[in-house]
Specification:
The structure is a homotetramer of 305-residue chains. By secondary structure, chain A is an alpha/beta fold. Chain A is 53% helix and 13% strand. At the A-B interface, strand 9, helix 9, helix 10, helix 11 and helix 12 of A face strand 9, helix 9, helix 10, helix 11 and helix 12 of B.
């Protein structure tokens, strides 16, 4: 165990699991959250070797710690946390480390890296895959971008929260790959949902659809998990529609920046957009099937159907 | 080993592997193929306990065998093989069995089943998943639709060609599920391809994209396989673009029949349609990435890039 | 006025208007309709110089007349009317003329032309634009395909129903152009609807949207007409959703046959498909906006809003 | 003629035509342009009653004039011109007027209006339709948003550049309607292009397609104009692909903000995106047909085809 002091910004679904693991594995952790009261309440619930403090601002957090992790919801939130008045950058110093775990644009990640390097500090991007369960159990996969030396330096801390660490290249490359990943899973969700709705209208036993998918070369644990939700109508949020739409939007913007087209992702985003229009923004991403069911004039099958 | 006489119609990529396994496992097999010469040539290459004959017509094939399997390319071909002049139906009798392995519409499958039942024979649908390799190694997954008794009766023969047999329900249900499956894998291909093209333009090491995907909850053997093709530019055909477009078209038609919409599959089909327009119709489905690369003004990365 | 005897098949929205004009302008007209009773009732309501008879079958109709016009709902209906048992073809003779006004595929039109030519008769395609109002007032635009001589020969009869006659080329070319036209108006409808829904949610005075559109270089009488319906919620059927979806489907099939892609038409068809899923199949095509309103969680504005 | 001093920012295709008309009709005009040299050169070419000056900065321009018009390419450019260091706002005073003619987001327009109102000045949005030709001939249509009194106050100046002035409502409403308009014309372009490509592959005389469209209820001057470009391959820029993609992107973002979906516009934008990927970004919007031609493996028809 090191004596490094860790700061953590953002207490969403993912952040809470990550903090819990850092604390339980003996790190000195200080929190900052936009809603201060929830940070204080959450800190009081944590049980580790050391008490968990709450800082007054991102700037104060940076001044009180050696490494700050950030896991917030979108690029605008990151902009303010890093570059805003009382932002992390204003509290950083030579040797300080900033780790960006939010899913944001490659361009923002690169701008952050340059800003910290300019003052002799260092920033690495480290978005994660693994959902709520991975965050809670400390088995996330970290996808890093930045200098190789920084990746290695930070491994001991990342190891408290994850089980696998893939160094993707220079700054921005992990953000790019993360966006591709969330785009890919959007396709899988939408594809399964579109197919299930037609099969449901046809009258097929939907569990057979999942059985066939999972017996095929294109099987994936994701289909078992989200397909189960689609069959049962259990849309308890592990990954919210609003957040995935945000990622789809960032991916399309990056594609536009590269003058590449993503015709099907564009179609998919509009379906998820409809989910937001129909009040499902804070539900799990598997709830997108409800949009397609409504469009086809059917409902979630009930236990007694 | 039974003494059942097996007929087989269709010597495409899948059919050849299936026949080879039937012959090697000791069945008496007779073939029929639209191009007679290729059936004769293929029959001469097979090495089993019994010589392989070639029938003059589907009707003759039915008259010389107890069970006829059919694995041809599209509904029109099936229509002719079954209902055409000198078709299987005209050569069938009470107790005869017909097994439809082609990917066709639920409606056609149901019409075939009724026609054979009307003469005291029986028809079962049994489309497969598993691609060329599964056909060759006898490890296909058969998805069956029809009476349970028929499914059980035919298991000993199916077992020569497959490793798993999922009875999906009455006639037509397997066709429906097969179409959903091929729609789902279309989403996965397109999703990976769209993402890889943007990542390539950005300058990311594409092998890292695959590594991240395969370390995530949405990992799938399919991504490793087809993603590898997309990176290397090896589009040797396991599943041809023309055939997948055919399946996408059938799925959209079935969705239309159910008044359900499949917005993203519709978008995907148009990209695959462009692959046909650009001369990739007989290439592997992974070659769809070339359409997106061309649209974005880039090429397949070369070994020395 | 000639003494030609005219047969007419199909008494839908368009057919009734066309027949009314033929009768009022003094032609001898005989009808055939799948539902015989509605043909008899309609015939009794017509007031022209000559009484209107009803034939027993398409074959009988052909035998009793010199020229048969057909205006039915889809290619399957045309197939049966022409090639079916007791079809027009079986009642035709040398010198007989068949005019196909239905919107069908180029391939079917070409097949019909060949069949009539083979017996020394002649067939021309002549789909129309102009909607219900044009049919009733005799101001349709006829788009013809076939030999130029046939186009000229039939002009006197067409003139009873239309005001403009565009000869597009050989058989099939008019069908192709008609499909392009109905695809184009699908784009205009969907485009206006998608924009109006966002504007409505924003809170804009929707009549201002129409005013701006109609003051621009992209103004069109179609926008005034269908836009008015979208604002008022008056979806009285001039052109039914089911029929336009049929045309969109034929267009996509023709594009597929040509290995060309129509990415946005594919997207549009799925929205119209949803209209069918939501029970709007027999409503006017302008009702597609209701699908987009529902997806966005809003309703048609009410007079007192 | 008034003695009002007019400032003008932005000398793109539209701006040049607008300035030319202001000068010719006797206004005192001062220019500012990011590239100062082109403003000086353009000023020297203008021939009106008064010499045309060039200001050092937007701030200086505001200080030297009574009304500043702005017609630049995107929201980022507007942000800098208005709110940046040495921006118009910093040079404005009570009674000053700012008129935003660029196509931007409703939100930005509203923010600008509030900022000028806060200092006792006034801002109105007045995007235009009419393309390059309308700008040159002074026959633009101005779509305004803001207080009715401001609309009336500015009419005498707008009248030098336009022929029609539609007051759409409060600030932001004109921007919203302008985006709907440019979305609508995107649909018309894409629809015509998709149809023409299939017709071309089929072998139809494309001039017949335009003749039929223009004889139909959905005729529009826009189809004659842009359709002509698509047939001839003359893509001389009146409205650049890059600019229309920008507007499509703003419209999709506004739709997202309203949780409304625009499935077909999303599909269309990706096709236009491909045009950018293929080097057509600065060509006329009618060149989008080249993307579809390339996807279908054909070329622009040549005069001798």
């Amino acid at each position: 165990m090191t004596t490094q002091r860790i700061g953590f910004i953002g207490l969403g679904i993912m952040g809470r699991g990550m903090v819990k693991n850092l604390v339980e594995k003996g790190f000195f952790v200080t929190l900052w959250n936009r809603t201060r009261s929830s940070a204080i309440e959450f800190a009081s619930e944590l049980t580790g070797a050391h008490p968990v403090a709450v800082a007054e601002s991102p700037q104060a957090l940076a001044m009180q710690t050696d490494i700050v992790f950030c896991c917030v919801k979108d690029p605008a939130a990151v902009e303010e946390v890093v570059f805003g008045p009382n932002g992390v950058l204003s509290g950083a110093r030579s040797g300080f480390r900033y780790v960006e775990c939010s899913t944001v644009t490659p361009e923002l990640v690169q701008r952050i890296a340059k800003a910290f390097e300019a003052i002799g500090a260092g920033a690495m991007e480290a978005p994660v895959t693994g959902s709520k369960l991975g965050a809670q159990s400390g088995s996330l996969v970290f996808i890093t971008g930045g200098p190789t030396a920084l990746h290695e330096e930070l491994l001991p801390v990342l190891s408290a929260m994850g089980k696998k660490f893939i160094h993707c290249g220079p700054s921005g490359h992990a953000a790019m790959i993360k966006l591709v990943g969330n785009s890919t899973l959007s396709f899988m969700l939408e594809g399964l949902a579109e197919g299930l709705v037609v099969a449901q209208k046809f009258g097929v036993d939907l569990s057979k659809v999942l059985e066939v998918v999972q017996s095929s070369g294109y099987a994936s644990p994701f289909f078992a998990w989200k397909g189960g939700n689609m069959l049962s109508g259990d849309f308890d949020t592990h990954f919210a529609v609003d957040l995935l739409v945000k990622d789809q939007t960032l991916m399309l913007a990056e594609a536009a920046r590269q003058s590449a087209s993503m015709p099907a992702l564009a179609a998919i985003r509009e379906v998820f957009q409809s989910a937001r229009g129909q009040g499902l923004g804070d539900k799990d991403i598997s709830s997108v099937i409800e949009v397609l069911r409504a469009a086809a004039g059917i409902k979630t099958p009930q236990p007694n159907d």
